[in-house]
Amino acid sequence: MSFAEWIKQIDDLHTWDMSKGDLTTLEIRPGTDAFHYFYDPLENRLIKDFLLDDRPRVSLHCEVRLIDHGGKYSPRVRLWKRDRSKKATQLWETGEIPGSHIVKALVDTGDGHEHFLTLMAYLVELSGVTVGDRAVRVVDATDADIVSALRARSRADVVPMIESVLDSPLNGAEIAALSGRKSDLEEFETLLTDNAHFEREAADGSREAVWQRFFERATWIFGYGLNLVSHAAMDDGKLERITVGNNIFTGAGKRSDAIMRTRALISTLLFCEIKKHDTPLLSPGRPYREPDVYSPSAELVGGTAQLQKTVRKAYRLMINQVEKHTTPDGTPTGLDFSTTRPRQVLLVGSLDEFRTDAGVNAEKMESFELYRRAQAEVEIITFDELLERARFIVAG
Fold it and tell me: b/e per residue, 245-274, with b = 16+ CB within 10 A?
């Protein structure tokens, strides 16, 4: 049923005045449509509409419909206003609602907010009505209004609301992730744009170590479910611990089980060579060949080679472990992994290197792009590109 069709049925008989009635007296009964509604046993009537605020010209209403899920009910909520001052000539546009007109504008609860919160609290606490399985949906509000309303509430109030929207519960780790990504994004941008802040962070170590620490804390920027392996940590045995010491083979009674576990581990690995945001992408000075052939910088070429060597080492370690634990007959297993590769990312420099006062140097940009595209297994990404990717994740 559309809202216009539903509103035709609304009259004083089906309206509950929040300023007068006692919600605890209501029951739940099926309606004549596919929904269930609250029922007033004292006056033998279905309640399809709750009056939140009543003024001479405009009244604020809240529609509540209940969907039956095997004895549990999930509510559907809609706010709307009735304008009694409109003339009869305007009734046609609104579905011929006698004596009223739907206000096509933002619905502000105004002085009815206390009654609205009382009604919402009643729905949340009512036995037999669940808001965790399905959402309590309040429509006709802008994103800004919703954010403003949430900020005024405690975390204990907000989390159930978010769970209702997502149709799933949130655990502590997810809540921490949601709240932490914005601060990670702000820190990322500050490190890129505020040289003084970056140098302070680098005071007790190398400049690459600044980014090392940041991305080990904010691995979500590279993607979900990934185990970040940066080359700077290889010397302390981290690679061996990740590729060998993850208990891949514990309980793997069959050779195929170990292979599947190893494939799963490989798919979660992200080998990332992290350079600096001001590392040059192209060799400085004159073009390699006049007038427009520019060569990649030594840092870019070296970082690519270093990353490839590290991944190859890890790959051999994992295959050796599978052969050691699962092939007593000496059958080779390398082919089992021929289509499985970990992600390889080289994070280096910034595209700002190609900007001039007159615009972007297209020849330099093209030289960099040609080198980047030629790397089949290594994803080369600049710091400013990664920042934009992080913004997209947070905004999405």
Answer: ebebbeebeebeebbebbbebbeebbbbbb
